[in-house]
Specification:
Elements lengths: L2 H13 L18 H17 L4 H14 L2 E7 L3 E8 L5 E7 L7 H16 L4 H12 L6 H18 L4 H23 L4 H16 L1 H4 L6 H7 L7 H12 L3 H29 L5
Antiparallel strand pairs: 1-2, 2-3
């Protein structure tokens, strides 16, 4: 990001802050130091990246929040780590740190909440303590109930089957296969199994449950049901983020996400191929 833009944002934040002896925060709050802002931004940015946000969004939020506290920030994002450096407006104070990115299931509700928090820090002039409290509340908040997620994913995958002209029988098979496959995925993730093994096992299990339609000729489109049974595993969000990152100039992150998504797609294909080989299905 442009250094001149960061410095001007930091100075503007200081000039619009209430006049007090402690700096850019109201008189009742002590101005945070570069180390405190650095720690907050490291947690904030790592959480955004782990939840599925594109790199440009993280970059903008980091600059916005740092400017609100009177600092400029330089952010470097790598596939599994990030490095950021926070500098005061006068250049006298600088803190640099490295953090880990813990990838998890995408959660755009939390991404939206974190993005809103970034704007609240600027618009409401939140203290660093209040911002940290809200950040912890967002990250510790409960996600959707696993059973509800399973049901919604199964309905969505059955709708995909219908989109590819699958009949009611194929949709029913896809619904049941997705329900079981996604439950298996939740279990394996809870047991901390490697992601590639998770995708392979879930693709094999889901396609195996949908295969009877092909073997016993249930309905008029059993092949469509078999092919659609693994669509819930397609890593669409990483692929979209990869394209957005490359278009925004974050080529390293873009190619990294594209490669990781491609590996998962290969695992899905291997799981489906194993089912077809075991059951003697030659084509879809």
């Amino acid at each position: 990001m442009s250094e001149s833009f960061q410095q001007s944002a930091a100075k503007a934040a200081l000039s619009h802050a209430p006049h007090c002896s402690s700096g850019g925060r109201p008189a009742t709050n002590q101005a945070p130091g570069a180390g405190e802002v650095n720690d907050f931004l490291r947690t904030f940015c790592a959480a955004l990246l782990g939840l599925g946000a594109q790199t440009a969004r993280v970059d903008r939020n980091a600059a916005r929040i740092a400017g609100a506290f009177g600092f400029a920030v330089d952010l470097a994002v790598f596939p599994k780590h990030l490095m950021l450096s926070v500098t005061s407006a006068d250049g006298r104070e600088r803190r640099t740190s490295v953090g880990s990115i813990k990838a998890g299931a995408p959660d755009f509700r939390k991404v939206a909440s974190l993005n809103a928090l970034g704007w609240s820090i600027v618009d409401e002039r939140l203290s660093l303590e209040e911002a940290r409290r809200r950040l912890n509340a967002i990250l510790s908040g409960q996600s959707y109930h696993p059973a509800c997620v399973r049901l919604m994913v199964a309905c969505a995958n059955a709708a995909f089957c219908r989109l590819f002209e699958g009949d009611a029988t194929a949709m029913a098979l896809v619904f049941a296969a997705t329900l079981a496959g996604f439950y298996l995925r939740q279990l394996l993730v809870r047991w901390r199994v490697d992601g590639k093994i998770v995708f392979f096992c879930c693709a094999f299990g889901a396609s195996l449950l949908a295969a009877p339609g092909v073997l016993f000729h249930w309905g008029s489109t059993p092949q469509t049901g078999l092919a659609a049974s693994v669509l819930f595993l397609i890593p669409g969000i990483p692929l979209i983020n990869a394209m957005l990152d490359i278009m925004d100039g974050h080529v390293l992150m873009g190619f990294s996400r594209a490669v990781q998504a491609s590996i998962l797609i290969v695992c899905i294909a291997l799981g489906l191929a194993l089912t077809m080989a075991l059951l003697g299905v030659s084509s879809l």
